[in-house]
């Protein structure tokens, strides 16, 4: 970093303390407990400092959730699927690594899906999952792009729906992964069966 653009001493520390304070409030008291005066008190900073960084409360919460996701997903490493590894197993290996922090911190899952509906959270999913996209694509890299697109659409809709059911108290947080597991199994086994049939037809035509 150029010396002329280096952040002032203490800025990163203040920012981390601010976001950590929001995460702590989200986990212990919930979304509605994130009030700026309480955040300022916990972070040992001022409302003026907060407003210099974030125009609204929702922007601050979005930043805190992104901060939390970066911390919890930064250890994911892209591991290409072994030629003998079933697609279902490979995908669930990635999905469990991604979802495990949510399952251990359900309040953050609720906050994530609540802030997604705010004006500041519209593209939260894309920005926050940037670190894990490469991990998922390493497993899906040899698949039909149309199938990958369909898979992403189906699974994202399913996760959103399951999170909503959890938020309403209809299912437990631990019910989400088994449902995803069953869905991924059905989708991937169907895809693999269709590829085998296509390869068999291609071989038959060549004979």
From TrEMBL:
Signal peptide annotation: none
Gene3D superfamilies reported for this sequence: Tetracycline Repressor, domain 2
Entry keyword set: DNA-binding, Transcription, Transcription regulation
InterPro entries per UniProt: Homeodomain-like_sf (IPR009057), HTH-type_TetR-like_transc_reg (IPR050109), HTH_TetR (IPR001647), KstR_C (IPR041642)
Domain HTH tetR-type: 12-72
Keyword Transcription regulation among record annotations: yes
Keyword Cytoplasm (UniProt): no
Entry superkingdom: Bacteria
Pfam families referenced in this protein's UniProt entry, alphabetically: TetR_C_20 (PF17925), TetR_N (PF00440)
DNA-binding region range list: 35-54
Protein name per UniProt: TetR family transcriptional regulator
Organism: Rhodococcus gannanensis
């Amino acid at each position: 970093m150029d010396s002329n653009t280096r952040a002032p001493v203490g800025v990163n520390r203040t920012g981390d303390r601010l976001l950590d304070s929001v995460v702590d409030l989200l986990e212990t008291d919930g979304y509605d407990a994130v009030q700026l005066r309480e955040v300022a008190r916990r972070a040992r900073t001022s409302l003026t400092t907060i407003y210099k960084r974030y125009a609204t409360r929702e922007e601050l919460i979005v930043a805190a959730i992104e901060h939390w996701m970066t911390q919890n997903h930064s250890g994911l490493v892209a591991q290409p699927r072994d030629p003998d590894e079933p697609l279902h197993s490979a995908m669930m290996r990635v999905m469990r690594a991604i979802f495990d922090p949510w399952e251990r911190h359900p309040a953050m899952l609720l906050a994530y899906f609540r802030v997604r509906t705010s004006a500041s959270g519209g593209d939260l999913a894309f920005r926050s999952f940037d670190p894990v996209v490469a991990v998922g694509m390493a497993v899906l890299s040899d698949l039909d792009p149309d199938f990958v697109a369909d898979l992403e659409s189906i699974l994202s809709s399913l996760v959103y729906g399951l999170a909503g059911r959890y938020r309403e108290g209809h299912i437990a947080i631990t019910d989400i992964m088994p449902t995803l597991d069953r869905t991924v199994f059905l989708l991937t086994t169907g895809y693999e069966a269709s590829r085998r049939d296509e390869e068999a037809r291609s071989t038959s035509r060549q004979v």
